[in-house]
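Why does residue order matter? Because the sequence determines the fold. Keep that principle in mind as you read this record.
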Amino acid sequence: MPIRITGMNSGLDTESIITALTQTKQDRLDTAKADQKKLTWRQDKWKELNKKTVAFYNGALSTMRFSSAYTKKTTSASNSNAVSVVTGENAMNATQTLDITSLAKAAYLTGKEVKTSGGDGAKSSTTMKELGLSEGGKLKFSIGDSETDTIEVDVAATDTIDSVLAKLKSAKSSESGTSLNFNFDGNNGRFYVSAQTEGAKAAFHLVSDGESSAAMNALGFALSGSSEADSSNYIAGSSAKITLNGVKYTSESNTFEVNGLTITANEIASGITLTTKQDTSGIYDGIKKLISEYNDLMKEYATLYNADKASKYKMLTDDEKEAMGEKEVEEWEDKIKSGLLSGDETISTVKGALRDIMNSSIDIKMKDGTTQSFSLAKFGISTGSYFSTSENERDLLHIDGDPDDSTTSGNTDILNKMISTDPDAVQNFFSQLSRNLYSKLGDLMKGTEYSSSFTIYEDKLMASQYSAYNTKISDAQSALEAAQDKLYKKFSTMETALAKINSSSGSLSSFFGGGG
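Structure:
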């Protein structure tokens, strides 16, 4: 901005005069900036509300449309220390007998102590030559029951234990590509080997034939007994075995998948009773979650819609902000922000549409074959008393007998009773209700010329309005500066003329004074 020196000859406060003469244009600029700022705040409010709406749409509402949300089952075990069970939706209601006869184990070898030819304990830097392998050798392990699927590593006389260890760690078997876990403990001078997974198929076996015997023995890869079964330093890889209702099952891990049940064996035990039945608490919890998320959203809508418009709080100009404290400005602007969506027509439309569906009736086929018309009220779910409920909570639903709801916890638990006596009717009603609500909310969030998909407000229109404000602010700024420049030029011309007059007057005074 140019530096202007004015009023030197006239003595006038030119800045104040020009500011007063261009105040109307300054007001237009301030108003445009304020309106754009308020639009930004409104956009932020809508983004947050839309985020919560989409979360409800994709959350419990989406889940409760499907039968899988109501076919929840649970399985209890008479010996929960020995077994844990995850119940799938296809599991059958039944009481079964389980014996766990063996657990899966991973093959594991504790190598013999490695010593040099001189009888000293080996270290990571010890070479194969120092271990008596002047010509090097071969290390060999077979995988599972196969004699041809082997891990083979060639070692040279110059290789150290560290370099041999690196070769073993990177080696894979010839057919299945299996690798093993290897480690050398320098403190104890021993190699340790384990299979990467449990079971007989992943187990390893030591191979000591003509070309590998010397190297295997030198590095401690040998059994302490006459065979693997007799060896004290080798744990054979084994499969898990159970007997369920008289039928034997084998697994390479301790987990079994049988007829919808995922059974994990933890310890050997017999005579375990597994009881699978309908999980009524799971169905209840699902419905309760749906109602809770609906309530949270409806309360948010009501809070924003019923907020004080804060019409007496006008947007602050930069000068007004400078005259106030930081906290005062924040509190002032928070008042404006809280009322930005007060009485908003879109909120009213969405809120009303959801409420109408939750208040609707649905025809349901009962267990006895008859058809009855059900509403939420028949399941003991309804809103509170209009006059005793606060304005923002009048659309909220309460479940009779819900221990977490002080309003209705003392009422008879109709919902749980219905789940126990006719779970199919409960499923049919709430899945259809959820589908209706999901469909309606989806329609309200469809993309249009003015809004994006999955958006309940006109975000595209608001973005266009924001851009329009940029133009309006730019035009207002230009008009203000042009008016100021024009006035400054006029005052500058006046100052120049006054300077000439003052100069002439001075000359005349000097002339007449000299003649005296």
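The chain has a mean pLDDT of 91.
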